[in-house]
Design goal:
Distance between the termini: 56 Å
Order of helices and strands: HEHEHHEHHEEHEHEEHEEEE
CATH superfamily: Alkaline phosphatase D (PhoD)
CATH class: Alpha Beta
CATH topology: Purple Acid Phosphatase, chain A, domain 2
Number of strands: 12
Shape: globular
Number of domains: 1
Helix content: 25-40%
Structural class: alpha/beta
Largest sheet: 6 strands, mixed
Strand order of the largest sheet: 3-2-1-10-11-12
Number of helices: 9
């Protein structure tokens, strides 16, 4: 009970969706991860606990449901929820997240998946989403959270890349009209010094053969065009899915500032690629063993300085990149 009250205090003090507490401390350390099979051992959660995050973000494949039977999904979510170390994590800090195909219900599934409505409620139950949450009433699970005081504020934007996504091979849409309009409105309204956009699968990489925004070239260009608009704040991208981790970066030519993406995958499902895999946008080398990611924000600098780290199963850093929070150059 005491731990549950502690987690509630953290949620209230750090801030919550659509608002923040004036006296809230800044969000300085968050952990993000993806791809965790509910039936496999996950000692990595002990390492995540040792990192003492202020926030944990699920980025998809939070279980391997892969079933049209919602009861099966719920059973698998229960297995995930009742890992002792995961329960400790939920007591330690707020846990938020989005989904990908395996917790949506079927491999590579999108808007034509027949059980998407039922899957949405099962997923939100897993996250203990309040009964009156907008996410329970809208189509899709996209949402945003704001943490920290006005002068040291972080906004986390969680995309839903499943509920509205067209079939692979169509070069169709990913987000759907309502989510595109919401994303534009949410970004334009942001006053945060650090803006983070979470996509379940990769946005920047384009060379591999697996799921990625580059499979929907028009949608990818639409996203880049939106991010390049002068009224939009610069963002940092987080993604999962690939069963490997890497850091990718685009030059300022695309969005007006260097666009950085940190991919962290997987908690239990390593082995999705190799060190020889091509990614023309990769910074350094990828990492193919089980891992989690962290973002550490140094608010003593102006602009704040971000250190993105990939941690191995024991919590040791194996890949890292330090960069200033992106800012848009002043318009002439």
């Amino acid at each position: 009970m005491l731990r549950s009250l502690h987690a509630l205090f953290l949620l209230l003090s750090l801030g919550a969706a659509h608002g923040q507490t004036e006296a809230a401390p800044p969000l300085s350390r968050m952990v993000f991860a993806s791809c965790c099979h509910e039936s496999r051992p996950a000692p990595i959660f002990r390492s995540i606990l040792a990192a003492k995050p202020q926030l944990f973000i699920w980025m998809g494949d939070n279980i391997y449901g892969d079933s049209p039977d919602t009861a099966v999904l719920r059973e698998k979510y229960q297995l995930q929820q009742f890992r002792p170390a995961y329960r400790e994590l939920c007591d330690l800090c707020p846990v938020i997240g989005t989904w990908d195909d395996h917790d949506f219900g079927a491999n590579d599934a999108g808007k034509n998946y027949p059980n998407r409505v039922e899957s949405q409620q099962a997923f939100l139950d897993f996250l203990r989403e309040p009964a009156n949450s907008k996410r329970r009433k809208q189509e899709g699970i996209y949402t945003t959270y704001v943490y920290g005081p006005a002068e040291k504020q972080t906004r986390v934007i969680l995309l839903d890349t499943r509920y509205f996504r067209d079939d692979i091979g169509t070069n169709g849409d990913i987000l759907g009209a309502a989510q595109w309009a919401w994303l534009e409105k949410t970004l334009k309204a942001s006053k945060a010094q650090v803006n983070i956009v979470v996509s379940s699968f990769q946005v920047i990489p384009e060379d591999h053969r697996f799921e990625k925004w580059a499979n929907f070239a028009d949608a990818r260009q639409r996203l880049f065009k939106l991010l390049a608009e002068p009224a939009m704040p610069p963002v940092v991208l987080l993604s999962g899915d690939r069963h490997l981790s890497e850091i990718s970066q685009l030059s300022a030519e695309t969005t007006g500032y260097p666009l950085t993406e940190i991919t962290s995958s997987a908690l239990t499902q390593s082995g999705g690629g190799s060190s020889k895999e091509i990614n023309r946008h990769r910074v350094g080398e990828n990492y193919t063993m089980n891992n989690f990611g962290s973002l550490n924000i140094d608010w003593s600098r102006t602009p704040p300085v971000i250190t993105a780290v990939i941690h191995n199963i024991d919590g040791a850093p194996v890949r890292a990149l330090t960069f200033p929070a992106p800012v848009r150059p002043a318009q002439p």
